[in-house]
Design a protein that fits this description.
- The complex is a heterodimer.
- Chain A has 17 helices and 4 strands.
- By secondary structure, chain A is mainly alpha-helical.
- Chain A folds into 2 domains: 70 residues; 321 residues, ABC transporter involved in vitamin B12 uptake, BtuC (Orthogonal Bundle), CATH 1.10.3470.
- A two-stranded antiparallel ribbon of chain A has the order 1-2. Chain A has a two-stranded antiparallel ribbon with strand order 3-4.
- The longest helix of chain A has 29 residues.
- Chain B is α/β, with parallel strands linked by helices.
- Chain B is built from 12 helices and 10 strands.
- The mean pLDDT of chain B is 84.
- Classes of the chains: A mainly alpha, B alpha/beta.
- At the A-B interface, helix 11, helix 12 and helix 13 of A face helix 2, helix 3, helix 4 and helix 6 of B.
């Protein structure tokens, strides 16, 4: 399907016209704040420039169309190579990634800056894996996941402020509290499906945030809670000196360095994330995991097989939210300060985006998406102004090229004919 | 009539607002027998199934299941999944409901959920990898494998159920229902959409299940070649009421049945062709 040059130019001119029409209000006029108040400024010269850029771009695209089509044909139909490779050897890819993450602090790149960013990415990897149990496996669309993250974070912050409990004591409590909230919300709403469940969980997320904002006597309201205890290493604080305690550097007889605490935090979240991963990989192969996937596929068929849909969904909800609670507890101890600002809807949206972009149910996909969505913006902070554009652009591209997520595809939980790859 | 009763339905009525879908239905299905349920479109056959399997709560009436090992289950008081779990009534669906993204083998393992859940101590033993769970899982896989051999899908065990051909999906759905270890299997139009050869294979599979597993089967079917050939007993529904009940031969010649199917009025004489047909038979 080759078009004549005239057609291409016509098409490009049409695009330029549309661009000019759009550019006139968007670029041609602007409000400027001056001494006399707001004034309308014109910069009409921008309009033809925009039109010219669109014209050139569209023409180039049209001219390149035959090559693009050829290039597209040459790509093998079906899955791209990388995805097939990762899906075929998930164990090796996973082990390699885990080994790389473990070794990072020992490598020359593992400076404080890198470890900070790594810790942040790992928090989102863990949250993504936790939400993946609920959304990817059980197929329950939850839009308020950050609420359970907040429950975990505030559980630790409040318990440590009031009762002086340590991070390690609070870690299981935070998870249990988040799971309890998950059960409380889940029990009445899990009979809802799809969109309705999404809306209710969205509302719940906001309720939690509003409560945190307004219950100032306990949560500190908008000021949040500060001075949250840092984690210790088997009871040894990671400080320069601590009266009455042997500190970490004293015990190992090494000079004190602030990086030690960063490394500890990094390893703690890495451990938590790996536990999340192992549990979700393992549980997927258990009857309850298969029941979750079956419920996602067809709830009516599940009932006809004697599976209790409510109990199964609740267990998925409780497990997924417990991991959010653990992550929240870690977040609180890492930041040392939490406020409702950290648990807005945007947070839930980012976590959900990580799961969806990664490819629902794909553990490796979640890691990739977390690096893309959380890691890259951290490295390109200088370009922070353009972050939202890049974010939106990436979303559009992924939805166009990989509508099922970066690493879509499901590996069977069990095989009968071992060895013969299907 | 030597076989003991398995399912006794007494005065079952199901109303949807003003519509009476099942009207005072009384019938019995026996152990080790195939009970066919036929009737014109909209006669209430699927509604009846939905009542028996707990998807609808009947307006009135009693359904009592008497499994061979003793005890009775009042199905009208049981809800949803409990009928499948406790009373062991399994079913298939008119429009196939497989877990199409999961593999064939996984479909059969999901059917053994309750047994495996118990073995995995509600996932605790499973998470820790206890031997008790691994043995139970191996048994479940072996059971699934035997069923796959029986329905001729052993080679396809690891492909997604949704990519199987239509006839194979029908057979798999029956095998999945059988993997729940039921005492009563309800089949909602299992021959729908099958070609004559597949339909014959289905007949053999159902007869084989009746013989080797000694369970009761309830069968809704439009394909008369299936119903009449394999049913031990046929119940005919029309407008939610039972209009005939008996052996396939008795039912075939029942004037009420012929009227219901051909649409003649109650007091009209039967169409000449039909009357002649009956005379010959």
């Amino acid at each position: 399907m080759t078009r004549s040059l005239f057609d291409m130019v016509k098409d490009a001119a049409l695009a330029a016209l549309v661009a000019a029409l759009l550019a006139l209000p968007l670029l041609g006029f602007r409000l400027a704040d001056s001494a006399q108040g707001l004034q309308l400024e014109t910069r009409l010269s921008w309009v033809p420039i925009a039109a010219a850029i669109v014209f050139a771009g569209r023409l180039a695209l049209n001219l390149a169309a035959p090559w693009l089509a050829k290039w597209k044909d040459r790509a093998p139909a079906g899955k791209p190579k990388l995805e097939t490779a990762i899906n075929r050897r998930p164990l090796y890819v996973g082990l390699a990634m885990a080994a790389a993450a473990l070794a990072l602090p020992l490598t020359p790149w593992g400076d404080r800056n890198m470890l900070d960013k790594g810790t942040l990415v790992l928090i989102y990897v863990m949250l993504g894996w936790g939400l993946n149990i609920v959304v990817g496996l059980a197929g329950l669309l939850v839009l308020g996941y950050a609420a359970f993250y907040a429950v975990g974070a505030y559980s630790y912050a409040i318990l440590s402020q009031i009762f002086g409990l340590t991070f390690w004591e609070c870690l299981p409590i935070s998870g249990a509290m988040a799971a309890l909230f998950g059960l409380l919300v889940g029990f009445p709403v899990l009979r809802l499906r799809g969109d309705y469940l999404a809306i209710v969980t969205l509302g719940f997320g906001e309720i939690i945030r509003v409560i945190l904002l307004n219950w100032a006597s306990i949560t500190g309201g908008p000021n949040g809670i500060s001075g949250i205890q840092r984690p210790s290493f088997f009871g040894m604080p990671m400080t320069a000196s601590s009266p009455g305690h042997t500190t970490f550097h004293e015990f190992f007889d090494i000079p004190f360095a602030p990086t030690q605490r960063i490394v500890l935090l990094y390893y703690v979240i890495l451990l938590l994330a790996l536990v999340t991963n192992l549990v979700s990989l393992r549980i997927r192969r258990l009857p309850i995991g298969r029941a979750w996937e079956a419920l996602r596929e067809d709830e009516i068929a599940c009932r006809s097989l004697g599976i209790n849909p409510t109990a199964s969904k609740l267990s998925a909800f409780a497990l997924g939210t417990a991991f959010a609670g653990f992550a929240g507890c870690f977040f609180a101890t890492r930041q040392g300060f939490i406020s409702p600002e950290s648990f807005t809807f945007l947070e839930s949206a980012v976590i959900l985006a990580i799961v969806v972009l990664g490819g629902m149910g794909s553990q490796t996909g979640v890691v990739l998406a977390a690096v893309l969505l959380v890691g890259l913006p951290e490295w390109f902070r200088d370009l922070a102004q353009y972050r939202m554009i890049a974010f939106g652009g990436a979303m559009v591209l992924i939805m166009l090229w990989r509508p099922k997520g970066l690493l879509a595809g499901r590996t069977p939980t069990i095989r009968l004919n071992k060895g013969e790859a299907a | 009539m030597s076989n003991p009763a398995l399912l006794q339905v007494e005065n079952l009525t199901m109303r949807f607002g003003g519509l009476v879908a099942i009207n005072d239905l009384t019938m019995t299905a026996r152990q080790g027998e195939i009970t066919g349920i036929i009737g014109p479109n909209g006669a209430g056959k699927t509604t009846f199934f939905n009542c028996v399997t707990g998807f609808y709560k009947p307006t009135q009436g009693r359904m009592t299941l008497t499994p061979p090992e003793g005890g009775t289950w009042p199905l009208q008081d049981m809800q949803g999944y409990r009928i499948a779990k406790k009373a062991r009534v399994a079913r298939t669906f008119q429009n196939i409901r497989l877990f199409s993204g999961m593999t064939v083998l996984e479909n059969l393992l999901v059917a053994q959920h309750n047994k495996l859940m118990k073995a995995s101590l509600f996932s605790v033993a499973g998470l820790l990898g206890f031997k008790r769970y691994r043995t139970a899982e191996a048994e479940a896989v072996e059971r699934a494998r035997q069923w796959l051999v029986r329905i001729g899908l052993e080679k396809s065990a690891d492909i997604p159920a949704g990519s199987l051909p239509y006839g194979a999906q029908r057979r798999l759905e029956i095998a999945r229902a059988m993997c729940t270890d039921p005492v009563l299997l309800c089949l909602d139009e299992p021959a729908a959409g099958l070609n004559p050869k597949e339909s014959l294979e289905l007949n053999e599979l159902l007869l084989d299940i009746r013989k080797t597993n000694e369970i009761g089967l309830l069968l809704i079917e439009h394909d008369m070649s299936v119903v009449m050939r394999i049913s031990d007993h046929v119940v005919v529904l029309d407008y939610g009421a039972r209009i005939a009940d008996g052996t396939p031969d008795q039912v075939r010649h029942d004037p009420n049945v012929i009227r219901a199917y051909l649409g003649a009025e109650e007091d009209e004489p039967l169409p000449a062709v039909v009357a002649q047909d009956l005379g010959e038979a």
